[in-house]
Amino acid sequence: MSCGGATGNFVPTEHQHLRYNPLRASWVLVSAHRMRRPWGGRVEDPPEEPMPDLGNPLLPGNTRANGEVNPDYDGTFVFENDFPALQPNAPDPGSGDDPLFRSKVARGVCKVMCFHPRSDITLPLMTHDEVVTVIDKWAELVEELGSTYTWVQIFENKGAMMGCSNPHPHCQVWASSFLPNEPALADRCQRKFYEEHGEPLLLRYARQEVERRERVVVQSCDWLAVVPYWATWPFQTLLLPRRRHILRLNDLTTEERRDLADVMKRLLTKYDNLFEVSFPYSMGWHGAPTGPAPPSLAHWQLHAHYFPPLLRSATVRKFMVGYELLAQEQRDLTPEQAAEKLRRLPDEHYKIRDGGLKEQKKE
Ligand code: H2U
User: Fold this and answer.
1) Which of 110, 111, 112 to mutate to test the pocket of ligand 1 (most atoms within 8 A of CB)?
2) Is residue 65 assigned to a domain?
3) CATH number of the domain encompassing residue 264
4) CB distance 101 to ligand 1 below 6 Å
5) What domain range is 204 assigned to?
6) How far does the centroid of ligand 1 lie from the alpha carbon of residue 58, in Å?
7) Whose CB has fewer CB within 10 Å in the chain, the N or C terminal residue?
8) Which letter does DSSP use for residue 69 in this model?
9) Is residue 158 one of the residues assigned to a domain?
């Protein structure tokens, strides 16, 4: 790894050091030498493979918690969350006069989007065309909800380990009248970089990662997936367009969507192949803020974050606890080591290799 100003005896896999995350203006402590320590901590039960539960409320034709019956869908299916965290007509709490007890109005909508009619077909196991359909639907939702709301957060919690409550492949879409903390921070950081350097931070970053190669996991004509230089989660990745300035999912061309579907399938197959388990993660898209009159956005570049918790095996995870909560983020494995492990994995899914899905699913 090339570190600007490194002294002769610095070895990133041996010597602890700090790395800067320019999207969050924060530092992460990298202590790769700790990978050698014995593990005496919690070992999770192996994540359960979703059993075909014919009563799952997300399946076509089934009844949801609010009594509505799902249509007999055969592609994606979007519905209003029956237990929404954001509602469109919440009253204004008023701002109050005390600087220590401030509040603000929060309005929005929450939707759930099923990716596929079958509960056992996750994104890497879907056909290329089926993944394109998911991307098209994401773009449509950004367009539709973005005309009213300031921020449209598409996110997927996958696996019980990441708090996912339903094994049916799905994501959530929360649109809000306010810019949430994380995108607000990404907005400030990208804007500052643009003002100082005259080009979008992530366009320059993608170009440099393609040249440096050591953190690249999957690369295509239009897209790049890397373990970012500043990754915190062991196998965290950043997925971003590498060739042109793109604000949001709905700005992608047909070709870019098809290419993205291919890169997502390859990345998620590698994730599943790492420990031969349906890999848990939280992922989400960050595109430029929306709403009726968004400010100047030349500094923004569309990107997706994948935050997977697994560290050493299908049962040993990374916790973000003591030092991370009270001091700062810390990791053991270097991002370059994580990228190399993922890069070397086959593009064929282990379930396809083992013939597990052949009878049910034909590409
Ligand atoms: P997870 O993405 O964390 O698994 O959440 C699934 C969402 O689906 C959850 O927000 C919603 C839950 O409220 N849901 C319904 O709206 N109706 C149902 O009948 C089941 C689940």
Assistant:
1) 112
2) no
3) 3.30.428.10
4) no
5) 77-94+101-353
6) 8
7) C
8) B
9) yes
For 202-246, what is each residue's pLDDT tens digit?
Answer: 999 999 999 999 999 999 999 999 999 999 999 999 999 999 999
Coil, helix or strand for 145?
helix
Does 168 fall in a domain? yes
Domain count, the chain: 1
Contact by Cβ (8 Å): 329, 26: yes
Look up 116 and say whether it is catalytic.
no
Distance 178 CA to ligand 1 centre (A): 23
In 148-183, which positions are buried (b, 16+ CB within 10 angstroms) versus exposed (e)? bbbbbbbebbbbbbbebebbbbbbbbbbbbebeeeb
Element (H, E) at 305: strand 303-307
Of 170, 303, 305, 349, catalytic: 170
Per-residue pLDDT tens digits for 10-55 = 999 999 999 999 999 999 999 988 777 665 666 666 665 656 688 9
| Ligand 1 probe mutation, 64, 69, 109, 165, most atoms within 8 A of CB | 165
* 360 assigned to some structural domain: no
